[in-house]
What we know:
Helices cover 38% and strands 8% of the residues. By secondary structure, it is an alpha/beta fold. Helix 2 links the parallel strand 1 and strand 2 (56-61). The two termini are 28 Å apart.
Amino acid sequence: MSDITPDNPRHVPVLLERTVELLAPALAGTDRVLVDATLGLGGHAEAFLERFPELVLVGLDRDPEALRLSAERLARFGDRVRLVHTVYDGIRGALDGLGIARVAGILFDLGVSSMQLDETDRGFAYSRDAPLDMRMDPGSPLTAARILADYDEAALRRIFTQYGEERLASRYARRIVERRVAAPSRPPRNSSRCSSRPPPPPCSASAPGTPRSACSRRCASR
Ligand SMILES: C[S@@+](CC[C@H](N)C(=O)[O-])C[C@H]1O[C@@H](n2cnc3c(N)ncnc32)[C@H](O)[C@@H]1O
């Protein structure tokens, strides 16, 4: 159960001041609409609403729990806040639905939120033993566990290579399929290990050129 509340949002937005500074020229004035396409826990949104008292903010997120918590956090801004449950590809549809024809800016703060990482049940945290879920929208049918259970080796390799920039993609894809054959009834969990080989060296400042996404996802696929 989440201990996040509007007073204890726990996700601290990065580059908040710089983001406000960069968008400020577009937002000063009347009739300005800002789309926060990845609302999360509403940290950026709150700062913009405070800084620009006439601003209307449209907040989108695919995670209904993020929208619920942000709605509480931003309630004091009344009808200056409009929240829509959608992926950011759905910006146009969301704006059409709200009758908004023109916006002054769009903010994308891409990635996962701390809330998604911290909640064990969401299955994002590699450090905790939990079903491998990883859905940003728990209403969508496809879990990470399903992918590991169903996708063939080539498809897994492509995911690790393309989205994870993982140099050990082939090894991990092969081990996952081998493990599936050896233990077909054991659903994958976050703590599962597919490799008995020593892990690759940790990512650090001493490993220049290692993509950040590879650092963060390596444990999940090992
Ligand atoms: C880094 S967090 C945003 C944090 C936010 N700026 C704040 O201050 O709290 C990223 C958010 O984007 C959402 N998200 C990820 N992919 C998305 C997509 N395709 N469409 C809409 N939201 C998405 C996640 O659910 C998450 O809540």
